[in-house]
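Side project, low priority. Logging it here so it doesn't get lost.
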Amino acid sequence: MPRPAAGAARRWSLQLPKDAPAARTARGAAGEWLAGAPAESLAAARSVVTELVSNAVRYGRAPIGLSIQDLGDRIRIEVTHAGTGRPRARFQPRARGRGLQIVAAQADSWGTSEDLSHVWVELRVAR
């Protein structure tokens, strides 16, 4: 895919079902959408997409949305789901599962909505 023109951003989105293959589908789509990105950036983006979509499948409600923006110097990944309607008092890491730790290690910046129904991540692209 061609690079965006100066000042233009490319954005892709995909709606996913709440099922086990959703993370694999999202990871593959991310790889296709970001074809031509540096290998390190592509690997980080695919890892982040896998973790975030897996969490949305496990803890969220359908539909699950994935969007990726190629901003030239960085990639912005957003995963949304219908949410629980109940905000969490605070994030409490679990003994098992390191998904958000993996995301934080890969990301240059990231954040969530209060109820965790929207997670965004930005990754710097080394060109």
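Brief comment: The mean pLDDT is 85.
Revisit when time allows.
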